[in-house]
Amino acid sequence: ETGVTQSPTHLIKTRGQQVTLRCSSQSGHNTVSWYQQALGQGPQFIFQYYREEENGRGNFPPRFSGLQFPNYSSELNVNALELDDSALYLCASSTRGTGAYEQYFGPGTRLTVT
Amino acid sequence: AQKITQTQPGMFVQEKEAVTLDCTYDTSDPSYGLFWYKQPSSGEMIFLIYQGSYDQQNATEGRYSLNFQKARKSANLVISASQLGDSAMYFCAMREGSGNQFYFGTGTSLTVIP
To answer: Which residues pair with A87 in a beta bridge?
Structure first.
């Protein structure tokens, strides 16, 4: 069974640039959620994708957008980067409709905006 | 109001001793799930244990148990026989009903002393 993977591991961008982060869900999982974890804080829900559509969104501006592909992998795109976007971005996969409740997280992408 | 509150920023425990990490939650939804995750310095969130709001018994998973007190809205994690490898950040989280979003607390840093 393949776990959740994310790429890249680390990334440094300049304010105003755009970034794309990638996530491959765990085998058999059809739902992907993205979280932002600032230093010293708990993860904050950005949005979730199910069946290639956004299925719930947290308190994040529209410059945070995403995609889910037919193989259930997902991308998180952030436009017009701001210094406060520096954080660990976590992807989590899960399975809807089976009664399973857990989310399984990837190792994260650490984004630094300078 | 915070959905999840973890009031212990840092905890220390002697190796082989038991430790309790506190978590209180706030929801008006009668159906919810409570989760504990471990986050080592590497960053990956590791699922530890789950408790459903309708579960009659406290959840247990190996050395982890969840002390669920519904009337007090608390879901404390108990780690028995602490090991050096248990040193990490621990996060309590909640999902309401069939909602998509997980709400996380600010975490507790656990240090196991040899």
So the answer is: A111
- Using a CB-CB cut-off of 8 Å, the residues of chain A touching B95 are 101
**Phi/psi at B84 (5° precision):** -60, -35
C-beta atoms of B47 and A90 within 8 A = no
Q: What is the pLDDT of residue A103?
A: 84
Chain A interface includes B78 (CB < 8 A): no
CA distance A52 to chain B (A): 15
CB-based contact, A110 to chain B, within 8 Å: yes
Whether B103 and A45 lie within 8 Å, measured CB to CB: yes
Per-residue pLDDT of A47-85, as tens digits, reads 999 889 998 899 999 999 999 999 999 999 999 999 999
Per-residue burial over B30-49, b if 16 or more Cβ lie within 10 Å, else e, is eebbbbbbbbeeebbbebbb
Size of interface A-B (CB pairs under 8 A): 61
Rounded to whole angstroms, the Cα distance separating A16 from A79 reads 7
Residues of chain B with pLDDT under 70: none
d(CA A56, CA A46): 9
Distance set, CA B91 to CA A16, A80, A98, B40, B68 (Å) = 32, 30, 25, 11, 16
Could you identify the residue written with the tokens 């993860």?
Answer: A43
Q: Minimal CA–CA distance to A81: which of A71, A89, A73?
A: A89
| A66 touching chain B per CB within 8 A | no
